[in-house]
Design goal:
The protein has five helices and five strands; from the N terminus they run βαβαβαβαβα. The chain is α/β, with parallel strands linked by helices and 134 residues long. It has one domain: Response regulator (Rossmann fold, 3-Layer(aba) Sandwich). It starts with 6 loop residues before the first strand and ends in a 6-residue tail after the last helix.
Length: 134
């Protein structure tokens, strides 16, 4: 990873899960911001650059799928890594979600925060090798 702290936006309507993810990412050295729905996330993405977006799939106001499409199509953040978290593991295939929402990885709940942090580290280490196009 680069010398400065990587900035992660966590978008999750479950406040307990938000705190667990935030705690684990901050403990791992990431700068974190939180949004509780997709609309709030868009406002933050317009105001600040993030190195990673982690979003829940099912949320009020704007769900994670709509958020991912908006980020890719409207905001044109094609290179922003996105991790999607979903409680619909039995209903939706992860490979389908990766393609449908143009995300890097899907984690099914209940998730291991350490696994998400570990994946984020490896993803950002890989992305640090390529020039940023944001």
């Amino acid at each position: 990873m680069r010398d400065e702290r990587s900035a992660v936006l966590i978008v999750e309507d479950n406040r307990a899960m938000t705190q667990v993810l935030r705690f684990n990412f901050e403990r791992a050295g990431f700068a974190t911001a939180v949004a509780f729905d997709g609309l709030e996330a868009i406002r933050q993405l317009e105001e600040q650059n993030f190195d990673l977006l982690i979003t829940d799939l099912q949320m009020p106001a704007m769900d994670g799928g709509e958020l991912c499409r908006h980020v890719r199509d409207v905001m044109q953040l094609k290179d922003l890594p996105i991790i999607l978290c979903s409680a619909t593991g039995m209903e939706v295939d992860a490979a389908h979600l990766v393609v449908a929402y143009d995300v890097n990885q899907v984690f099914y709940k209940p998730i291991s925060p350490q696994a998400v942090v570990s994946y984020a580290r490896s993803l950002l280490d890989t992305n640090a090798l390529a020039p940023c196009c944001r």
